[in-house]
Design brief:
Elements (H helix, E strand, L loop, with lengths): L1 E2 L8 E2 L4 E2 L4 E4 L1 E3 L4 E2 L4 E4 L11 E3 L4 E2 L4 E4 L5 E3 L4 E2 L4 E8 L4 E2 L4 E7 L4 E2 L4 E3 L2 E2 L4 E2 L4 E2 L13 H23 L5
Parallel strand pairs: 1-4, 2-5, 3-6, 4-7, 5-8, 6-9, 7-10, 8-11, 9-12, 10-13, 11-13, 12-14, 13-15, 14-16, 15-17, 15-18, 16-19, 17-20
Length: 186
């Protein structure tokens, strides 16, 4: 469902993107080319700051927002998901937040008030908040990172982890094509 927020902002969805009919996109959202937005995802840009303004939620080209993901921002803050990034099932990205290009965020992870650099991997059930993850970092499953100081013990992404992330992005790009092809069959 595509709908306006109370300010009257309507999501802008590129014609090559696929948004599952059960997903909800509300407000000041920009969905770029070849994006896959899966079933029951909720992307909501509707809270304003003290001046009545808000930054958009931007989903970069070739990214995928999987089943049950929630993306929202508080007090007018924005969220940017870079190109070729994967936000896996049931994750929460709560702005203000910036996710770089080619980032993988694993199942049930939470990102809040942070930035995640290009090529980084946040594995399943992790929490990342109040910090700036440099490019190419690997955050293991069930990690809880709450400051830049806690990043010191985190190892760099290995090629096999990056390969998995790239395969997820590629598989979801193929889903965009398939679902767009059959969109009139349901």
């Amino acid at each position: 469902m595509i709908r306006r927020n109370p300010n009257g902002d309507l999501p802008q969805v590129h014609e090559t993107a696929f948004v599952d009919p059960t997903a909800i996109l509300c407000g000041k959202i920009i969905v770029e080319a070849n994006v896959f937005i899966g079933p029951y995802a909720v992307i909501r840009a509707d809270e304003v700051n003290d001046d009545g303004d808000m930054e958009p939620i931007v989903i970069g080209a070739d990214s995928n927002i999987q089943d049950g993901v929630v993306i929202h921002c508080k007090a007018g803050g924005g969220v940017t998901i870079g190109r070729g990034s994967s936000i896996a099932h049931r994750s929460i990205v709560h702005g203000p937040c910036t996710v770089g290009d080619n980032v993988f965020v694993g199942f049930n992870s939470v990102l809040f008030n942070c930035s995640v650099g290009d090529g980084s991997v946040v594995r399943h059930n992790s929490v990342v908040e109040d910090c700036d993850v440099p490019p190419g970092f690997y955050i293991p499953s069930t990690a809880n990172i709450h400051s830049n100081e806690e990043l010191a013990g985190i190892e760099r992404v290995t090629p096999d982890v990056s390969g998995f992330s790239e395969s997820v992005a590629q598989a979801n790009n193929e889903l965009v094509k398939g679902y767009k092809r059959i969109r009139n069959e349901f």
